[in-house]
Amino acid sequence: MDVYLPIANLSVNGLWIVALGALTGVLSGLFGVGGGFLTTPLLIFYGIPPTVAAASASTQVTGASVTGVLAHGNRGGVDYRMGMVMVAGGVIGSGFGALLFRFFRAIGQIDVVISALYVILLGTIGMLMAREAVQTLRGTGSRQAARRRHHPLVASLPMRWRFYRSGLYISPLAPLIVGVAVGILTMLMGVGGGFILVPAMLYILGMSANVVVGTSLYNILFVTMATTIMHSLTTKAVDIVLVFLLLIGSVTGAQLGSQIAVKAKPEYLRLILATVVLLVAFRMFLGLFYQPDEIYTVYPL
């Protein structure tokens, strides 16, 4: 089933896009990531311009996050107070990200910036996740995980609040700063930011593991909504046909992923996710050295 994407100026297989959306939804429900870290690179590999892929993926991530938040919220797995602070930071970060996006596109380097960010961030986070998963499976990381606390810099920040669901008494400036960083990345890369947010919540903020996934999805939901509005008003790179096809699969996939997450062993899930992240990072790294068939990218006006 071929479908024409007006903004991307490309005909694609609609069933393949729906399947990709379903995969994104499963990842969303399983790991608390929006799935854009995988959707955007795969769309780029498929021949869709990076700007359209990034803008459309961030829009689709919103739909995938809605069902995930509902599923985790019903089980008490969302810290709404922490989530609201990070959402405020994410909205601010989206504004900064929009300015950076327009700057890099104006100088003709946005495609390279998007690919390079994926290589650096996915490579680093993939290695950290893989190392912890292997250590836990070997029995050498369980004691460290049990003693996990927030970063010393977080403890030094003023004006502390109690986040009861997360079991924390820290300054709201810490999650606010994390939210700003995620908002910038969401705007530039079309990701929900979960693959950055989940490790930050665990290792920097020291949040309880049972609320990390749901709170991450809560943050992703609102930040990607803000990012979609920013893209629509500034870059005009959101392809509504592409987003619709991705949403069809992702809404169903998110429910399936959240059900699997309850039954599966977390260490194996982290190892699988780390493997996928590293493979995507390696493919993006190779893409930096390939000359594309079309050396110019046509952007919407």
TrEMBL record:
Name the residues that span the membrane.
12-38, 44-71, 83-104, 110-130, 168-196, 202-225, 237-256, 268-290
Q: Does the keyword Transmembrane helix apply?
A: yes
User: Which superkingdom heads the taxonomic lineage of this protein's source?
Assistant: Bacteria
Keywords on record: Cell membrane, Membrane, Transmembrane, Transmembrane helix
Is Membrane one of the keywords UniProt gives this record?
Answer: yes
| Bilayer topology term | Multi-pass membrane protein
Q: Where in the cell is it found?
A: Cell membrane; Membrane
Just give the chief location class. membrane
Q: Which GO terms describe its cellular component?
A: plasma membrane
Database matches in PANTHER family: MEMBRANE TRANSPORTER PROTEIN MJ0441-RELATED, MEMBRANE TRANSPORTER PROTEIN YTNM-RELATED
Q: Which family does it belong to?
A: Belongs to the 4-toluene sulfonate uptake permease (TSUP) (TC 2.A.102) family.
Return the protein name: Probable membrane transporter protein
